[in-house]
Amino acid sequence: ADEPFVVRELNAGGDACHDKGLRMMADIAGVLGRREDREHFSTLAQSSYEAFNSLLFDSTTGLYTDGAGISHSSLHGNMFALCFGLVPEERRDKVVEFVKSRSMACSVYGSQFLLDALYDSDEGDYALSLMNSTSQRSWYNMIRIGSTITTEAWDPIFKPNLDWNHPWGAAPANVISRKLVGVEPLESGFSKVRIKPQVSNLNFAEILVPTIRGSIRVRFDKNAEAGGRSVLSVDIPHGISAEVWLPEADGTWKMVEVPAGIHEFSY
């Protein structure tokens, strides 16, 4: 780990992954029509969720500790809890604040879960600042040290024998489409998608996201209309419906359901 993490038999990182795995198994069983298996894994997941929040949460700090019976809280323990939906709503603000205070104190592998956690918490501004960073722990630094592809670690100082062709160091390659532009499947086979752009201070963005049903095109243009209104255009292929999420002035979101076709939103 790139930040001190106190390992115990019960530990936040591993247990958060375990809980996510149980929920995924329940979802898979549901799709396959295996009702008993779905109930079994759902019950285990709920027990895991309750134990995680009972044994690993420190009410004094408002954070999750690295393990049961210890006081140390790391970025890893809290970002995994946030990423995998283990943080109740009333605890999220404190956990998000802590996660943001730690910057990129994780490996290139951990950056995937950190960025997902931030975007899922509507922290697109901060997430983009990490992807745009020129610090030693940044994708810019991979270019600076001479690589033309993503590396195994942020810099040789963290791993002298790093290789220069690691896909697990390429989190922005999927985060830009899934989270920044915000195109994610809600149902299998992309029969329904969510489009929830968090473009932060970008003035323009356009992307073509390939799916089994055809490519989804999303285009964002800031201040494209008089009065400082932005325009979001989406082109959704036949066989796909979408939830389009638009930011409101008060920081909330407005969701509009649309069928296949070309749609334009001004906000």
How would you describe this structure to a colleague?
With 267 residues, this protein is an alpha+beta fold. Helix content is 37%, strand content 20%. The protein has eight helices and ten strands. It has helices at 12-31, 35-55, 75-83, 89-101, 108-120, 124-131, 139-144, 171-180; strands at 57-58, 63-64, 183-185, 192-195, 204-209, 216-225, 229-236, 241-247, 253-258, 261-266. Strands 3-4-8-9 form a four-stranded mixed sheet. A four-stranded antiparallel sheet has the order 5-6-7-10, with no helix packed on it. A two-stranded antiparallel sheet has the order 1-2. A hairpin with a 5-residue loop joins β8 (241-247) and β9 (253-258). α1 (12-31) runs antiparallel to α2, α3 crosses α5 and α5 (108-120) runs parallel beside α8 (171-180). The radius of gyration is 20 Å and the shape is globular. The relative contact order is 0.08. The mean pLDDT is 95.
